[in-house]
Every structure is written in C-alpha cells, then in structure tokens.
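Ticket #329: bound-state structure for beta-D-mannopyranose.
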Amino acid sequence: MKYPIVSGQSLPNMPWEDRPSGTGDVVWRYSRNPVIRRDLIPSSNSIFNSAVVPFRGRFAGVFRCDDKWRRMVLHRGFSDDGLKWDIDHEPLRFTCDDAEIGVFQYGYDPRVCWLEDRYYVTWCNGYHGPTIGVAWTHDFEHFTQLENAFLPYNRNGVMFPRRVGGRYAMLSRPSDTGHTPFGDVFYSESPDMCFWGRHRFVMKPYPESWQGTKVGAGPIPIETEAGWLLIYHGVLTSCNGFVYSAGVALLDRDQPWRVLARSGPYILSPQLPYECMGDVPNVVFPCAALCDADTGRVAVYYGAADTVTGLAFAYTDELIDFAKANSVV
Ligand code: BMA
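RESOLUTION: The complex was predicted; output attached.
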C-alpha cells in the first residue's frame, strides 16, 4: 500500500464489492443498498446514521432507530457479515453513576470507537439541548455512561482511536438548539474521559460548495502513515433546504487539528432514490467505516435521507490521493 495503515486490523470478512466497471469514482455504493431498511425492527420508523465496529470476529453496532412515536433512541445490534443485522428490539440502556446525567432524553447519530481496551460510544445526547454523550462497553451488553463531554450545544462527537500526545482526543461541532445553519469542526483533548479542553479549530465550511453551510466529522478517523483519514459531512443550503454530502480530509498525525488536505469535490452525495427521498430528503450522513489494514478496503455506513442505512466502498490510498489531488487547503 502507498500509505500503510497504522495499528489497523485485518478484516478479511468485512463487506466488500469491487468497483463496478465503467466508473472511476473514488467511492461506490453497495449494489444491494439500502443495507439496513427502515423497518428492520418492529418499533422503528427509520434506521440510519449508525455505527458499526469489528467485534469478536463478527460485527457489532449502535444504531439510531427513531421509533413510531418519532423518538430518537439507540439500539445495539450484531452481524456475522456486516450486511445482515440482528438489531435488538429494545433500546439500549446506559448505567450511570450520576442520576442527573443518566436521565435519557434522546440519543442520535452514534459513533463507536475501539480505544485501548474497550469500545467507547459517543452520541448526540439530550441534556438541556444536544450535547455529546460518552459511554463505554466491553461486550455490547452493558453500557456505562460517563459525563457529557461538552456544554450544550454540540453534535458529531467523534473520538480518535488512540491517545494523541498522551490524551484522549475528540472532534466535535458546536451547534445550536435546532437545525443549525452554521458549523465548524473543533478538536478537544481529555486526560481522563471526563474533563475535555485545549480546544483547537480544525475546519470550517468552504464557501459556494457542497460544504458551504456547515461541516461535521463522520466515522472514527483511520490512521495512516500519511495522516488521519477523516470522512466528514458537509451541508449546502439549496432553495429546497439542506443537502448533506460527504468529503474526505487528511489530518496531521500528531496535531490532528492541522488539516493537510481536504477535498474540494464531494466523494458521495445524495443521488439515488433512497438518498433523495425519505423523512429528510437529500441526505447522506456517514457515521462509521470498517477498514481492512491489509488491503486498505473501506466500507462506509451512512444514513440515507434520515430513513435507511446505506453502504459504500473505497480504498484508503485512493481517498488520500483524492483529498491531496483536489485539496482546497
Ligand atoms: C443533522 C442531524 C442528523 C441528520 C441531518 C439531516 O442536523 O440531525 O441526524 O441526518 O441533520 O436531517
């Protein structure tokens, strides 16, 4: 590989399809999308913006399943192949030492990060407005909730899979109470998963483009010898409302708030019917990526139209070259 993956794992059983002939696109979709349909469990209105990870030779995930009340709740699930998912019919419950923090109002847009010896879950957590909830699990049975990372209002909390400069690290996007019409990505550090600080600016919208209104981190960054590979979402305000697309950036390995490259064109945008039609039309929203360290194959899980979950494929080397060759930095 041109840019070897650092501390990755072999995932020969991850979902994969070769790029279809006739396209040179850096990202291509699973031919049988949506990989998770909206009504996979009886209670769900929609299943999207969800996070999956390798787990004990199989795959596990935390799924955003809005229910038929239209409450935003999180469910855990398991899969042998990353394609056919067995999602628990009951919402997952967190245990928390602090009764006030442990009150569950709503949860959405989870990410899951393997870090040192356990899986950390971050999600947009209701606490007098949206902020970043943090919890950990060893087994996807018991989830221990920690302090919220930030003050409200904040969304898209995405952890790094190792300490950086000796501290835990997270990207996030300060926001407002509603459908925020702005948004920059920031980097924060923590010595203990409780207190977060040393906030650094990472990137802001790029004007007059698919990422002109706001940007937010997507899947857990993938460490390569060239830098942290970050897939992120960007929003354009059209005369028909927000349009959510995805791009790719490369962040410095030691100082991840430094952006080395960032794609001017998108890598994925809402174009197919299940991305353009649904509860919120014209949304692709990546929240997870599986990566095989041996080949650089990437499988990106993304919410489509706030209704179903799509899957798309890419190679790390090609994503990095795309960010560099088309960089707006
Ligand atoms: C964002 C989040 C996402 C959602 C997107 C499009 O603000 O709420 O969960 O996918 O809007 O509606």
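RESOLUTION NOTES: The first strand starts at residue 28 and ends at 29.
TICKET STATUS: resolved
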